[in-house]
Amino acid sequence: MMCALSRNLCSLLACCIVLLLPLQTGAATAELAPVKVQGLRGAVPIEQINPPGRYRQERDHGPADRDFVQQPPLIPHSIQGYQITANFNKCMDCHAWQKTKVSGATKVSVTHYRTREGQELDSVSPLRYFCNQCHVPQTDAKPLVDNTYQRARGLR
């Protein structure tokens, strides 16, 4: 069995070989072509406001399928002009439990009426009060970057 000192020396020797190998092969002196990096802001400097792309919120329709198991539901209607402040939440006009029978809207999940410790509350938890922190309206916006994302297998 190797002692700790021998193991440390072997690790140090292995690191030196890895670091010195490019010098011997000439790879360290080869010039690399500069890589052009393009951010999502495009050519807009950070000091300037980058105007949002042109997209439209989709018209009212039924709930959309989810793409992963814990995905918050997407909002299937426009929320333009909705007020959500510390004193008022327009979403609760339709989605509060006592109003869903009349509005036909989906009830707010029971998880939104609990504290972190699991204590049941009479109203929506302050942690869950600002709906659009998690829920977003559907749009016709295209992905910002190419990707190969696929829905969760159990949701296909």
Fraction of helical residues? 10-25%
CATH class of the domain at 75-141: Mainly Alpha
Overall spatial form = extended
For the sheet with most strands, the description reads:
none
Helical run tally: 3
Percent strand equals under 5%
Q: What's the architecture of the domain at 75-141, going by CATH?
A: Orthogonal Bundle
Order of helices and strands: HHH
The CATH superfamily of the domain at 75-141 turns out to be Flavocytochrome C3, Chain A
Question: Over all CA atoms, what is the radius of gyration?
Answer: 27 Å
Coarse structural class: mainly alpha
Account of the 3D structure:
There is one protein chain. By secondary structure, this protein is mainly alpha-helical. The chain has a domain at 75-141: Flavocytochrome C3, Chain A, domain 2, CATH 1.10.1130.10. Helix content is 19%, strand content 0%. It contains 3 helices and no strands. It has helices spanning 4-25, 92-95, 100-103. It starts with a helix and ends in a 53-residue tail after the last helix. The mean pLDDT is 80.
Give the secondary structure arrangement, pairings included:
Elements: H1 4-25, H2 92-95, H3 100-103
Any key phrases for this structure?
156 residues; mainly alpha; Flavocytochrome C3, Chain A, domain 2; 0% strand
In summary, what is this structure?
The chain has 156 residues and is an all-alpha fold. The chain has 3 helices and no strands.
